[in-house]
# Entry
Amino acid sequence: MGLLRALRRFRVADRDMRRRMSEGMDMNATDVDALRYVIAHERAREAVTPRALAAYLGISTASTTKLLDRLGRSGHLRRDPHPRDRRSVVVVATDRAHAEVRERLARMHRRMLEVAEAVPEASRPDVARFLDAMADCLSAEDTLGDLGPPDASTEPIG
Amino acid sequence: MGLLRALRRFRVADRDMRRRMSEGMDMNATDVDALRYVIAHERAREAVTPRALAAYLGISTASTTKLLDRLGRSGHLRRDPHPRDRRSVVVVATDRAHAEVRERLARMHRRMLEVAEAVPEASRPDVARFLDAMADCLSAEDTLGDLGPPDASTEPIG
DNA sequence: CAATGTTTCTAGCCTAGCTAGTGAAATTGA
DNA sequence: TCAATTTCACTAGCTAGGCTAGAAACATTG
# Structure
């Protein structure tokens, strides 16, 4: 079944991309993920609090405080006062962060759009349904992850 | 474009699944990944060395030594002497590890197969091509990762 | 067979997580 | 209204899982 093979390949590519990205931007994977999260929400005009960020990243708020310190020091994120809750804070990406991410993303994102548009109209619902159903499989309660035969991306000793 | 939305959803589901899996098996994500790798290769009758494992996981061989110690202590992996290279080692999953993983995976894997088989014959090549092309996008040299609008899985402060 | 390369492991360090607990502000309820 | 509770971000201190450097055993090559 080539579909599962293709899915596995995509997952590995995604993992490797995150790795390169983290390497290339000289920050750890969580920090990059956080940066992407903040920027995406900023583009959608939605404020991000440390708590929301922690929930998304799956780390504690204490760790998020440290994360914000790091990304503050590196000049990517800033803490602004929350407009309505004086205990809280709004996390904002700096212009530099926006520019840096835009620069790195633009090309890939454009390519992805092209690829999506190249899928024949008639097949699109099936593609979307397939991915949604796969997501459902992974979301089911008691799962551990799929295995399947290894891809040819390894170097067994033979 | 719903395809990219579906793809994002799949990625998040995959991430969360790994998180639950790591939580549920009471080991860190890298160790689970390693276990899956070893078991998958074992099923394909391919030996796994610490070095190959390190390469796959993207960590140093020194860290892999520690990883093997951990998974040895927990009774999931074993070091066997390498048949032809006396410097080296073959990493083997214990029966218990096989059973544990099989138990956790069986249902999900079965579901995934069903989902794949439910995709209409006519659309399958398009689905596979889409995923392959997306993987290529992510593999391109200078990429950072896609952004796109955030999904509704967040709780912005409004 | 000497020289070089490869493989795993050890020793010691550093970072990014964690829990527990704090002070300040918001919310709830009597 | 105001006391009690909850929620928020943060601090302090710990731990685990990465890293580099270097060593010993073995393989490979000229």
